[in-house]
Amino acid sequence: MWRSRGGALLKILQSVSTGFRGGEAVIAAREIIVRNAVSMVHMALNELEANAVVKLDDERKASMVSNLLVVLCGGSEATPVINTGTLYT
User: 54, 61, 62, 89: which is deepest, by most CB within 10 A?
Assistant: First the structure.
């Protein structure tokens, strides 16, 4: 859902960005998308912790942050993956 909105937001921002030349509009739009994605990741981590949904160590937290940012900032549709293993060997 966010992916299609992110792509749509990028196209809208590119088309209405006045005062920007060439790639500047794309950079400005991406900055907005990344800023909002970071905010969403921060909010998700806080909510998980506040509601005691799951306790994440630093490595798992870093993995979750990375995965969420890739999904939220990427330019293509995300493919869900169910991880049945562990980060630790």
Answer: 61
